[in-house]
Amino acid sequence: MPEIVDRERVVTLADEGAPIVDVLSPKEHAELRIAGSVGLWLRDLDADSVAGFTRADPIVVYCHDHL
Known about the structure:
The chain is of the alpha/beta class.
């Protein structure tokens, strides 16, 4: 189930092996990425691009909102 987590929880999840998935555009990912994150542009997400993930394991997904 999706949940909003704080930075401390993200660090804990990453330390435990959870992938950090950045859904920014490739240009934004190059400029703003979190070290070690995987860039999967939201626009390109499909079954094939997420096939390596399982529903049973936590995944941290983030993006930057320009509002």
